[in-house]
Write a structure and sequence with these properties.
- With about 260 residues, the chain is an alpha+beta fold.
- It has one domain.
- It has 8 helices and 7 strands.
- Strands 1-7-6-2-3-4-5 form a 7-stranded mixed beta sheet.
- α4 packs across α6.
- The protein is globular.
- The two termini are about 30 Å apart.
């Protein structure tokens, strides 16, 4: 079973702030209103969490209830690394959006890209399709993020993301015998990707949880509750590298607290 260590802290992270969306405001417009708290630009190397309303999103949100103490479904179903210019790197479970690099967005690209895809924020702008959104910064300086993404994209020896995609597709599609992958220690590929990229620079996103067992909910819980752990690291430079840790900070908007399917 996928277990996440419970934080001893009883107070949520005050740096993780709810920013209510304006009426009929899309997710891109919401992101633009966030600014740069503490001089840190959230849309550059920050982590984006998204909670969708499709059947796939619903199944993923419910599956993550096993890492919550209350067993409620998660707010989140997808995540990635923001790279500026309206793009973020992620590992979707399947094609569905236009490929950023001009190539074809199809299953055939998965083996050579390790499932990693550059996605457009515009494709996730609709608040009806993606009602929940958060952007969180775990690193004050992480200049090598693009190099780490490129390495992970070209080397399945670091982490075999397609091997994680298959059991999740089976679960989402209701294939016979396909149990919740988290119960077998198989994390959501998008979250495992994010965790691994940050771990390559020495950052620990989810204390006490293996990168390959990660999920968006685990990242959310860490940012919200592991304040004291990150405060102990804040300002520390990673030895031998130009990276600097920080206590997570960011914003979130929850339009759909209870997981539901909207056709």
């Amino acid at each position: 079973m996928a277990l996440i260590s419970r934080s001893p802290s009883t107070r949520p992270n005050a740096r993780l702030v709810e920013k209510k969306p304006q009426k009929a405001e899309g997710n891109r417009a919401w992101l633009k209103r966030l600014g740069a708290p503490g001089g840190v630009v959230l849309e550059d190397n920050g982590i984006i969490l998204l909670g969708g309303s499709s059947l796939t999103d619903f199944r993923i949100r419910v599956a993550q209830s096993v890492v919550r103490g209350d067993l409620f479904p998660s707010f989140w179903s997808h995540c990635g690394i923001l790279l500026g210019d309206g793009l973020f790197a992620a590992v979707p479970l399947g094609p569905g959006h236009a490929a950023v690099d001009g190539g074809r967005d199809e299953v055939s690209t998965v083996p050579r890209s390790n499932g990693v895809q550059m996605s457009r924020l515009d494709d996730f702008d609709d608040p009806r399709r993606f009602p929940n959104v958060a952007v969180i910064r775990f690193a004050r300086r992480h200049p090598g993020v693009r190099d780490h993404i490129a390495r992970l994209k070209g080397d399945r020896g670091v982490i075999d993301l397609p091997a994680m995609i298959l059991p999740w597709l089976g679960h989402v599609w209701g294939v016979g015998g396909a149990a919740n992958p988290l119960l077998d220690g198989i994390g959501l590929p998008a979250a495992a990707f994010v965790e691994t990229v940050f771990s390559m620079a020495g950052f620990e996103l989810t204390p006490g949880l293996s990168s390959t067992s990660s999920c968006p909910e685990a990242i959310w819980q860490s940012a919200k509750w592991w304040t004291e752990f990150y405060e102990g690291l804040s300002g520390d430079a990673i030895a031998g590298a130009p990276y600097e840790a920080m206590c997570p900070e960011g914003f979130f908007a929850i339009r759909q607290p209870a997981a539901a399917i909207l056709e």
